[in-house]
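Design review, sub-item: ligand-bound model
Attendees: FS, YL, KQ
YL presented the inputs for the manganese (II) ion complex:
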Amino acid sequence: MPLPWLKMPELWQSRSGCGILDLINYKENGGTRMRTLLKGGSVVSGGGARRLDLLVENEKVAALGRNLKEAADRVVDVSGCFLFPGFIDAHTHFDLEVAGTVTADDFASGSRAALRGGTTTVIDFACPDRGESLQSGLSRWHGKAEGKTFCDYGFHMTIDDWNESVRNELPDMFAQGISSFKMYMTYPAMMLGDRDLYWALKELKRLGGICGVHCENAGVIDGMIAEKKAAGALSPASHPATRPPWLEAEAVARLLRIAQTADCPVVIVHLTNGEALREVQRARRRGQTVYVETCPQYLLLDESLYNSKAFSDAARYVCAPPLREKGEQDVLWKALRHGDIQTVSTDHCAFTLEQKAMGLEDFTRIPGGLPGAETRGELIWSFGVARRKISAAQMCRLLSENPARLYGLFPRKGTLQPGGDADIVVYDPSGSRIIRGEDSVSAAGYSPYEGFATSGVIRQVWLRGCLSVEDGTVLEQPPHGRYLVRGKCSL
Ligand code: MN
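KQ shared the predicted structure:
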């Protein structure tokens, strides 16, 4: 396989001398083993944290143990640090056309931002246009990602149309490693009606697939937007006003009754509020399997940000569902602590402030979405673990183990066990940094968490045994993220 960048080894050699070139050289020299020993850290799993040394051999975890004496080519002192299985972000949108523009982050900048944040696997959304085959949409997404993605990646498949040909294509999707799907109850270009949601879920039940659903009541939101427009209330403050939490809760309740009818488990993506969560709990009490995802923005930011005087200060937070009242944050943190919410992903969908300005005269034209892949790990540690709202083990479940199980990647991903991929986040709880948009890797050019002080920092990120981030810097390396063929849900 021709690798043009091999001609420039000095450029790709990482400071610590264990970059991808070392791995490739070792392989080319007759498969010699490259062994790295991470010594003195605490290895975190969903069950707790234990003082263990960790031996990496080429791309895999080879052994864990107290005071490992195994011979290694290199020993890395990680004492005082927590070693997490590489984080999985199961909700990103890179290189996506939205509202007449394209997200600021493509698979290159988006995946570098993700790596910076300890995310070694993203699951993005392949979104075929209506009328386009799933296969064609999937090929387009492979084209966007292949050869330019810096972390490992998979795709959920968006179902924005339901008919015989879509139904017939579904088994091919599973065969190509896609076991999870996405449906929308809002957005005219993508939403499905109740009948199609029902039929699609019924078919996914038969095939053993899992589906994430964006739950908001489209019709009433449309009506409220029309009223705001008629009244000339076109500023970003109208955005949360037209998408109230109870219209999310209504859609969650309706979806769950549809899922009950189809007898199919579902994932509620980006859940934002207690009313919606109560609908989930009701469904669980009647025996349904419901998984819930929330995002850092709903845990840490609130709707008062939409009232900023300057347009760009408010528009930067426009996303759907919108940020909620501050009181909802406690509800969500409690739900994380009690295990009512299974995953925290980001819904990373970045636009520059220049792009956000498309909606200067009309809030409905502001491209919706926030950058978040880069800061999730440090934020969840700082405002969750360090403040004793959740434990390190819970953080591991939310960011690594549960998404790996839910989306068919476990135990290759989501856990640090012999035989699994050596995707490792070395978290140093003693460090701290101030989050600044100007320091960020994402092409958004701003951070929604500007000025937030972290407790602890990500010191290193290893992707399949290759040191990829050190002290906040993504090391200069060619993109070597791999497409992940995923199996079925095991959560
Ligand atoms: Mn999304």
